Amino acid sequence: MPMYTLGLIDYTNVAPLTAHLRDLEGLRYERGVPTAMNAALLEGRVDLSNISSFEFVRNAHRLAALPDFSVSVLGPVYSVNLFHRRPWAELSGQRIALTSQSATSVQLLRVLLEASGVNAVLERAEGDAFTLLDQGYAGVLRIGDDALREWYRVAGPLGERDSMLTLPHQRGDVIVTDLAQRWYDLTGHPFTFAVWAYRRDNPPPAEVVQMMREARRAGIGELGNVARSRAQGMGLPARVIQHYLWNFRYHLEAPDKKGLARFADLACPGHAPLHFGDL
Ligand SMILES: C=C(O[C@@H]1C=C(C(=O)O)C=C[C@H]1O)C(=O)O
């Protein structure tokens, strides 16, 4: 195989898909946050990567996606959160801090605010949710592992016998709104955060896709081990990580595509038709 570069957004939510990726001759890996991998794919530095679904939609004229890979959820996601002190409906005219790691979640937030008639001031600002709230932001958008940890500071602890579903959404005056849950409440659809995309003129070799499918089967098949190995680095109980992981829909099924199509129309009106490869 000629040199081929596979990009990886290295968040815990993709660990079941990446834990068993193998080395193939000519294959190299490049890791980064979503906005870094979006740019790497569009600029030709990686050949195939999980990227923000919004960037896939925005560049639908030149990209295609693997037909059966996604990071989607139906209902809560736990790691794409708006942290806020005032109720959601009172965020009009208030400043909300956005992470520069995200493309999709920023657009999801815009869509959800607009759907409830809230007109907030969105600004880029880095830092953990609690620090930014203390600095005067009325809301802070966080994604990925940091968002999961900060959610647990609000919602935890989860006892051995507790269910994740009964954890609180508020501690003191800090409220956490899970954006995927809010999307579900609004539309009844799953939400697709990431797809595995490539430039249409550069489809992936079949052996790479085959290896990725084998890795996914192995990773999902031993989710408990994947959760335990990620839990240490995350500083969270393995049972929290395990629930977090099995909650994802990793196969881009028909309901996920419907949700993605709805998001595409809301976030990027006039986009080109979405193209899924026949691989
Ligand atoms: C579920 C998540 O989804 C990620 C969010 C992304 C974005 O906001 O652009 C991109 C890729 C996803 O893997 C998360 O970050 O927790």
- Order of secondary-structure elements: EHEHEHEEEHEHEHEEHEHHHH
Give the rounded overall mean pLDDT: 97
Number of DSSP strands? 11
Specify the overall morphology: globular
Overall structural class, as computed from helix and strand content, comes to alpha/beta
What is the fold named in CATH at topology level of the largest domain? D-Maltodextrin-Binding Protein, domain 2
Helix content: 25-40%
**Total discrete domains:** 2
- Radius of gyration, in angstroms, nearest whole number: 18 Å
Q: Treating each run of at least 4 consecutive H or I residues as one helix, how many helices? A: 11
Strand content: 15-25%
- Biggest sheet strand order reads 7-6-8-5-10-9
Q: CATH class of the largest domain, please?
A: Alpha Beta
Précis, in short:
This is Chorismate dehydratase. Pathway: Quinol/quinone metabolism; menaquinone biosynthesis. This protein is of the alpha/beta class.
Give an account of the 3D structure.
The protein has 279 residues and is an alpha/beta fold. The protein has two domains: 4-72 and 190-267, Periplasmic binding protein-like II (D-Maltodextrin-Binding Protein, domain 2, 3-Layer(aba) Sandwich); 80-187, Periplasmic binding protein-like II (D-Maltodextrin-Binding Protein, domain 2). 39% of the residues lie in helices and 22% in strands. β9 (170-171) and β10 form a beta hairpin. The longest helix is centred in the C-terminal third of the chain and has 16 residues, at 206-221. The two termini are 17 Å apart. Bound molecules: the ligand C=C(O[C@@H]1C=C(C(=O)O)C=C[C@H]1O)C(=O)O. Ligand ISJ binds next to α4, α6 and β11. The ligand C=C(O[C@@H]1C=C(C(=O)O)C=C[C@H]1O)C(=O)O is lined by residues 9, 11, 13, 34, 52, 71, 77, 79-80, 102-105, 143-144, 147, 193-194. Pfam families: VitK2_biosynth. It catalyses: chorismate = 3-[(1-carboxyvinyl)-oxy]benzoate + H2O.
